[in-house]
Amino acid sequence: MNLKEKILFLRSQGLSQSEISHHTGIAQSSVSKIENDEQLDVSYSKGAALDRLVSERTQKNQILASA
What we know:
The protein is built from 4 helices and no strands. With about 70 residues, it is an all-alpha fold.
């Protein structure tokens, strides 16, 4: 998954740009730019935080699906 796909996945899970920003440290304006193909990268630490958030949401979905 690239950055945009990760952001779109989280948005499809009901997270706002501000919530993604809060959980990852990626500025809300950067979240918007990533969604609109205006920004292609972020720092390693922010990318890692985004990966963790996607992983948490994926695990949550798997738990709900198996319940």
